[in-house]
Amino acid sequence: MLSNWKFDHIGVAVPEIEGTAAVYKAAGYTQTEPVYDPIQNVHICFLSKEGMPKVELLAPHDSTSPVQQTLDKMGVTPYHTCYEVENIEAAVAELRKMRYIVVRKPEPAIAFDNRRVCFLYNKQVGLIEIVEQ
Ligand code: NI
Question: Is the pTM of this model over 0.70?
Answer without folding.
Answer: yes
